[in-house]
Amino acid sequence: MKNVQVSVIIPCYNSEKTILRAIDSVLNGTLLPYEILIYDDNSNDNTIQVIEEKFSNKDIVKLFKGSEDRGAGFARRERIQKAVGNFIAFLVADDFWYEEKLEKQVKEISNNKYDIVTCGYDIFDEAGLLVGTRLPIKNINKYTIHLTNWLPTSMTVFRKNLESAQDMPQIRRRQDYGFWLRIFKNNKKLKCRVIDERLGGYLRRSDSLSSSKLNNVKFNFRLFRDVMKYSFLFSIFCVFLNITIRILRK
Predict the structure, then answer these.
(1) What rounded mean pLDDT belongs to the chain?
(2) Spatial distance between the Cα atoms of 166 and 75, rounded to a whole number of angstroms
(3) What is the DSSP secondary-structure string of 150-206?
(4) What's the start-to-end Cα distance of the chain, in Å?
(5) pLDDT of residue 208
(6) Choosing a second label site near 163 at 20 to 30 A (CA), which of 177, 182, 228, 245?
(7) Distance between CA atoms of residues 203 and 123, nearest Å
(8) Rg of the chain over all Cα atoms, to the nearest angstrom
(9) pLDDT confidence of residue 171
(10) Span 206-227, average pLDDT
């Protein structure tokens, strides 16, 4: 696996309660990445302090402090362009990995020359209770990715030199979905592998549940129409597919 160097990118904003767990989950893995790039989006809590207090002596952990709140899309794009690794793994500051997550993905990349490797995850509430699980479909391609975002941000590793892999859409929400849509559109021979295991944990925040559904519909339409440049009717059709899959997955 010497030919695979992974840079882990963790954007954070007011994440003092969860950021240490996220970073520790990477450092405690059975395979260490080449580097952990953290972008703090001008937090106004103690996020920076808790990171510096615990990881100031860890060369692998590199903290960048943003001067203004520019969103996760900007943070990820900025860090991708600075990353040394030939593969990138995102991790949301609220989420965490299980010990073998990265090792299993890198083995798939090394043995089978995949461009993207993803996996499933467990869903936890803010009390730490397991409230659900999620596994992607086995065949993710340029067609099925329009049904919904099958690639969980915190559970996916991808090749840095893919076309569009360094150009995260600069929208405040759903930029990760637009990122994957662009990559599948612009890389005709893309090889994507789904590991049929739950290899990490996702935090479901209660304060985002009540308002997220309608807003996600609006943001998905903007994504298809403005970012992907689809026609009005095809954008509506894609949003309809998203809603249908969301209902069926409940």
Answers:
(1) 91
(2) 12
(3) -S-GGG-EEETTSTTTT-----SSSHHHHHHHHHHHH-TT--EEEEEEEEEEEE--G
(4) 38
(5) 54
(6) 245
(7) 6
(8) 17
(9) 77
(10) 75
